[in-house]
Design brief:
The complex is a heterodimer of chains A (408) and B (120). Chain A is of the alpha/beta class and 408 residues long. Chain A has 16 helices and 8 strands. An 8-stranded mixed β-sheet of chain A has the order 1-4-3-2-5-6-8-7, sandwiched between helices. Chain A starts with 22 loop residues before the first helix and ends with a strand. Chain B has 6 helices and no strands. The chains are: A alpha/beta (408), B mainly alpha (120). The interface between A and B is large, with 67 and 52 residues.
Chain lengths: 408, 120
């Protein structure tokens, strides 16, 4: 049973900016991580039994038919006491994680801001736009129950959103993204190196990069490249830049900007990457930004996106319901819209040649050591997709990370 | 020094109407407080574990030594196992409900059962 336990929080990677975490804060993170794991592995699967044994039969009895849409299913499940308990616990655990992470950062906010400034001040690798207008879709939603979202500034030179994001990532992902939280970025690099061995990008743009956890592996993989991490949250960008500098990265520029209004030259990038970004943006913004990304790419450039796989006509309703859960109850409402879009249509409409589109999958890349055996036990979507046979495209085999994109 | 109210800001509510899943939101509020208290007990238990390990190793039990303590692999494993066992104990009722859903035979009414098996 040993490998079913997550690593302890003190195993996370540290750098010069890492907030001090005292004994009890560490224990609190350990408890919440274990609670997340327990809910995910031992309570959540019971929802399926509740659905099959009583929710579905009751629905059929009342409506005279089986549930036909994920909305039918979601509404019906809301009345089930077992599901209610799981959902209430899951929501509450996320709120506890936010509170705990924020408290750690807030109690040492001045110190952390000072440290961040010591890495940020006077650097031409950081650009903060004091006049930037937060896009309306972003301003309305505190994604994944993160109070104030990515952009709110509590004090001048604030880094709260970024530092809290980094501190809590371990708890939210139950330690499954490696000690630096960059398992996703490393997975992307593995995919690109394996699929496009001759690809040597000179300028890389990571749109919606947050604090750049998944951007830094791109810089590792292509040390000669000029890498830009763009995000609309100033506290994320400040923290991300300071963190990257503290970790020794000097080829990554952090730009605070709305992705719909970027100050880059036409055709100036060889690779534009988004990682778990589009599901936090509105439909209009996706369409508009994708067109702009097409414009920013040089001919022969790569547009690569990582997201949860979208629903297909034959995706079982129950899987749609579980994948939609965070949209409705973890404050990620736009995800529900994205789930039913055809991502290839989106990319085509942005200007890409339909013959140059592709998709695929890859596993999170975790460093050897304590994180490795643990990570392999966690791959929610993988087992979900294997069970349902929802593998429609050519390359995707239900791996942890779904990637799609095109060449210009 | 910036004056901020740390607890108030840490507790800030995320935008958007909070979903309540139970029929009565009061139940959910009490569950939320119960889980917060359960968290703090786990925190205290982990601290006690640290104190015991320091004592065993002959290290002075000071606040500084407690805060700087980092478990080795075996100790980390034992502490994580304690969390897993503890969570399993406090969520017993949830798991028993699942057993009842999955196995109808566990749901016989005691009164009916007394009549049914009176002669057994």
């Amino acid at each position: 049973m040993a490998n079913t336990l997550p690593p302890t929080f003190d195993r996370t990677g540290r750098h010069a900016l890492t907030p001090a975490v005292d004994h009890d804060e560490l224990a609190r993170f350990n408890f919440l991580t274990n609670l997340n794991v327990h809910l995910g592995q031992q309570v959540s699967p019971g929802n399926r039994s509740a659905y099959e044994k009583r929710v579905k039969p009751a629905f059929k009895k009342a409506a005279g038919r089986d549930p036909e849409t994920r909305q039918d299913l979601r509404k019906a499940m809301r009345n089930d006491p077992y599901y209610q308990f799981w959902a209430a616990l899951r929501r509450n655990t996320m709120e506890q994680r936010q509170q705990s992470g924020r408290h750690v950062v807030l109690r040492q906010l001045d110190d952390l801001i000072g440290k961040a400034k010591s890495f940020n001040d006077g650097k031409d690798t950081l650009k903060i736009d004091g006049q930037m207008k937060v896009p309306r879709y972003l301003a309305r939603v505190d994604n994944h129950c993160m109070p104030g979202s990515y952009y709110t500034e509590v004090v001048a030179d604030d880094i709260l959103a970024g530092a809290n994001y980094e501190t809590g990532l371990f708890v939210t992902t139950a330690g499954s993204m490696s000690s630096k939280g960059d398992g996703g970025g490393r997975a992307i690099v593995n995919f690109v190196k394996k699929s496009f061995a001759d690809f040597k990008p000179k300028r890389i743009l990571d749109l919606g990069a947050g604090i750049g956890v998944n951007t830094l592996p791109l810089a590792d993989a292509f040390p000669e490249a000029e890498v830009f991490a763009v995000d609309a949250g100033a506290p994320m960008v400040r923290w991300g830049h300071a963190r990257a500098q503290a970790m020794g990265y000097d080829n990554v520029k952090f730009i605070h900007a709305d992705g719909d209004n970027l100050d880059f030259e036409h055709g100036s990038f060889d690779w534009i990457q988004t990682t778990m970004f589009w599901h936090e943006t509105s439909t209009t913004a996706i369409q508009s930004m994708m067109k702009k990304m097409f414009d920013l790419l040089a001919p022969g450039g790569l547009f690569l996106n990582v997201e949860q796989p979208n629903f297909k006509p034959d995706t079982p309703l129950y899987d749609q319901f579980t994948r939609d859960w965070d949209a409705w109850y973890n404050n990620e409402p736009f995800w529900s819209k994205l789930h039913v879009m055809d991502v290839f249509e989106l990319v085509k409409n942005a200007g890409f040649d339909p013959r140059k589109l592709f998709d695929g999958g890859t596993e999170a890349d975790i460093e050897q050591g304590q994180f490795q055996p643990w990570s392999s036990t966690l791959s929610r979507h993988k087992h979900e997709l294997k069970d349902s046979g929802d593998v429609k495209h050519n390359q995707y085999k239900g791996e942890r990370w779904y990637l799609y994109g095109g060449w210009k | 020094m910036t004056e901020i109210d740390v607890n108030k800001l840490a507790n800030a509510k995320a935008k958007g109407k909070r979903p309540y899943f139970f029929d009565d939101p009061a139940v959910e509020r009490v569950l939320s407080i119960t889980m917060a208290v359960a968290t703090e007990l786990a925190v205290t238990r982990e601290r006690l574990d640290t104190v015991e390990r320091l004592l065993e190793d002959g290290v002075p039990v000071t606040k500084a030594n407690i805060d700087s303590y980092r478990p080795d692999d075996d100790a980390a494993q034992e502490r994580q196992q304690w969390h897993a066992d503890y969570i399993s104990r406090i969520l017993r009722i949830v798991h028993q409900e699942l057993e009842a859903i999955e196995n109808e035979s566990l749901n016989e009414d005691s009164e009916k059962l007394a009549d049914k098996y009176a002669a057994a």
